[in-house]
Amino acid sequence: MLKNLLAYLKEGNIFNAVEVVGDGILSYHFISVKKRNNELNIVKTASLKSVEEVKKHLSGHTPVYLVLNTESVLTKIIDFQQPNGFSQVNKAFPNLKTDDFFFEVLPSGNNSIVTICRKEDVNNLLKEFTVHNIAVGGFTLGINSIHHILPFVKGTYIELNHQLVEVDNEGFIINVNDITSSENHIYTINGTDIPGKNVLGFSAVLGSILYSDTLLTNSAQVNNTLKEEFLNRRFFSWFFKAALAFLLTLLLINFLVFNYYFTQAENLVQTSEVNKTNRQRLTELDSLVKNKERMVEDVSSASSSKTSFYMDNIASVIPSTLLLNDFDYQPLIKQPKEGEVIELSENMIKIEGTSTNNDDFSTWVETLEKFNWINNVAIMDYDYSGSSSSKFSLQIQLKNE
């Protein structure tokens, strides 16, 4: 499981190949293969006319393996084998300047299939794919990639786009003939049907996945560089996406934490402001009460101390959701006229204010009723003045002393 995951992160599970054929006017036979559970399934195939069209068939950072099979690619079969490949090339193409050519030698039984192509032609094609921002994972020449599927193909002939490959009973290539047209036979390889025009592309994909190749070539360094460039490109793409996801997650967490503490701070500020307003209002009410106490000293010599006592006790249990607007100790029974005796409601306190929480208001009333110097608390009025506040009026009957 871990091995498959690492392989997916490294190379992905979509592999593409393009066989380039033609002389002057090139054609591009495209195949896309998906690897899943150690099986290869063809996603799509297409015969295209330009590299730009190839680009449209690619998805994400997936590699393309090139099979160069144009008229500039030359192939010969010789009855000769050596371990380094240069000897076969010199025998097949005497006086060839190998510094100017890429070559591949495929040992096949007693024979060697020698394929060459000018480096300039290969580099020009690679450059064209690079210009279109297509990641090339490697390239191979002529029909040589076909050796990856020979053990799985039944029959003595394999018909490709422009070649007819003859295979002996042991699965070795014994002859390759050029053909002008192809009937596009379907070949079944391990249960997968592959059109003849895409056999070389599929073989190139299979070889890249198996990491096995018996070719003798001077293009190994170039292919390794192409492979490394693709892997680095894919790595940095994954790294960028992972880093971006990490940063976005970090920013989201930071935002949620900041929002939480900001909300808490706002609530504390609001509570502090309410308490400050209540204290200021209580101070104002206290001052007002004291003024009234001085005015009615002739009526009650002890009213000043009593008022402070009652106010302090009542104020000590006021919740932050209540705002007092009036505190009247022994209020006037009626407004006296000039010359009349001032009549007070003895042992009575009248309180008016605003509430933003019904439960807090009810709890406050219940708390007041528990004071041993209060006889009862009567709610005279409780009207809604808005969507979130209510005006109230209380009348507190004090016990006789």
UniProtKB/TrEMBL annotation:
Keywords: Membrane, Transmembrane, Transmembrane helix. The chain crosses the membrane at residues 238-262. Pfam families: PilN (PF05137). InterPro entries: PilN (IPR007813). This is PilN domain-containing protein.
